[in-house]
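Severity: low
Component: inverse-folding endpoint
Summary: output formatting inconsistent between runs
Steps to reproduce: submit the following structure tokens with default settings.
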């Protein structure tokens, strides 16, 4: 039996087991594989817990994506460039790390249309994936975070700008992306209202990586009449890619997507 899991903290809200298990069932793989979730408080224990649970693969969510990169044996080139891993695969006694967040995000925002500039709120592993994805499409990116510390993550990226709340000078951006956990288990905004309102007044699109909840960030975007999305499609597309990686690319991604879309609707 192959066992897969998603690691995070918090993790009780995750619908990843529902997506993966329905897909495994409809692909005829439920007798040989199952998917669960594991709340992990200490990211430094990620790989030791992966091995202890005898996993064949795993997804990694907030706040352990950078720890996953640091601890895997071999990182895919894209994951290494991004600086975070959200998918782990055990193969030949080694743990391989991948990032499916970046392509998943790009597919999720396709119907927004042309985007020339973007403001990313947050500076963790998901922010790095989103920033990398947007830069790969030639988008001008600014990263905004509450404090200075994690902004150092972007120092090696070329042609990025970044600022903390106190230093931010504002600007005009087509797209605003929340990559923080603000609004997941509370009613907080990822940045002060007085900072976000003028940005939203000039923006066209808003995207929150949090899924399944109308967050304060998305409510503010709606009040500003922006086209907006939660993270459900990003979750879907990154999960499709991850499940195929678990099986060495041997699965039909169209079939995976159809099953996972059904699982999302069941929620």
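Observed output (run 2 of 3):
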């Amino acid at each position: 039996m192959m066992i897969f899991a998603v690691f995070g903290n918090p993790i009780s809200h995750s619908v990843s087991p529902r997506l993966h298990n329905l897909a495994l069932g409809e692909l005829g793989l439920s007798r040989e594989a199952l998917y669960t979730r594991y709340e992990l408080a200490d990211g430094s224990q990620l790989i030791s817990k992966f091995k202890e649970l005898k996993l064949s693969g795993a997804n990694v969510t907030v706040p352990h994506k950078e720890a996953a990169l640091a601890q895997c044996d071999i990182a895919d080139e894209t994951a290494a460039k991004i600086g975070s891993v959200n998918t782990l695969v055990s193969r030949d006694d080694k743990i391989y790390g991948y990032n499916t967040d970046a392509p998943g995000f790009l597919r999720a925002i396709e119907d927004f249309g042309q985007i020339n500039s973007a403001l990313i709120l947050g500076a963790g592993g998901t922010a790095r994936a989103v920033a990398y994805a947007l830069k790969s499409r030639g988008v001008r990116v600014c990263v905004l975070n509450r404090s200075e510390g994690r902004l150092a993550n972007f120092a090696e990226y070329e042609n990025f700008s970044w600022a903390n709340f106190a230093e931010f000078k504002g600007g005009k951006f087509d797209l605003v992306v929340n990559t923080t956990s603000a609004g997941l288990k509370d009613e907080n905004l990822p940045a002060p209202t007085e900072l976000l309102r003028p940005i939203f007044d000039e923006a066209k699109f808003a995207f929150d990586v949090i899924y399944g909840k109308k967050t304060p960030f998305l409510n503010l975007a709606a009040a500003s009449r922006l086209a907006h999305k939660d993270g459900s499609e990003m979750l879907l597309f990154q999960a499709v890619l991850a499940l195929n990686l678990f099986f060495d690319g041997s699965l039909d991604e169209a079939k995976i997507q159809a099953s996972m879309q059904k699982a999302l609707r069941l929620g």
